[in-house]
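Exercise 7. Given the encoded structure of a 56-residue chain, write a plausible sequence.
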């Protein structure tokens, strides 16, 4: 029983340390990717408005 409790507390401690580190590491790249996708979408919309007869 005490071993299982110790393991759970250890997992909790690791998750408290590493989950925020993962978020800090992952978020900037994810935001940059979202920005690139949004820019591509805006460019696509602009091209689509400019050439209405072209079927895409």
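Solution.
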């Amino acid at each position: 029983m005490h071993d299982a409790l110790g393991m759970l507390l250890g997992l909790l401690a690791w998750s408290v340390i590493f989950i925020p580190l993962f978020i800090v590491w992952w978020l900037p790249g994810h935001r940059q990717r979202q920005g690139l996708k949004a820019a591509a979408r805006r460019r696509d919309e602009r091209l689509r408005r400019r050439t209405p007869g072209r079927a895409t």
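Remark. The mean pLDDT is 86. Students should compare their own answers with the one above.
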